[in-house]
Amino acid sequence: MSEFGKLRVIVENDLELMRSWRNIPNVRANMYTQHEITQEEHLAWWQRVNNSCENLYLMYELNSLPAGVVYFNKIDRSSNNAAWGFYAAPNAPRGTGTKMEFLALDYAFKKLELHKLYCEVLEYNSPVIKLHGKFGFKQEGIFKQQFRCDEKYLNVYRLGILCSEWELSRDIMESKINSLSK
Length: 182
Hints:
Layout: E1 6-9, H1 15-22, H2 25-28, H3 39-50, E2 56-62, E3 65-76, E4 81-88, H4 96-111, E5 116-122, H5 126-134, E6 138-149, E7 152-162, H6 163-181
Parallel strand pairs: 4-5
Antiparallel strand pairs: 1-2, 2-3, 3-4, 5-7, 6-7
């Protein structure tokens, strides 16, 4: 599985790299916060999320090099669920998102021992909606005209997966990713 890369805790030296990736226009375009993030804003945000038990941000490394960020938000220990998301480095090789998602699901259900993982995806981000579907995420709903962007209201897709669903598809996804890597 190490050929998939690994997730590790983010350290202070990672913060500027995270901000630079997060500020890339095509990454920003798929997030709720779409403006360019200043260093001061980023550091204040990091202080808030890093000191909260409801958030966990992890660096994804491939071949020992930082290649993306995986995050869990709204971690609810009473119901054992959380929201999640990810973004890859601009120079990450093709297939990085797939490997990150595999590791994120394993982390969520094995290490965090969640019952359910969910996410929200802006309507125009169909590649990510499709990727999540390959992993077993199901559409749970559509928040109609939930997000305002450039004077237009967009739908937000809510997707979710249960631990039991991941357990059923995990080995199949691992085999598929391994066959693509060869």
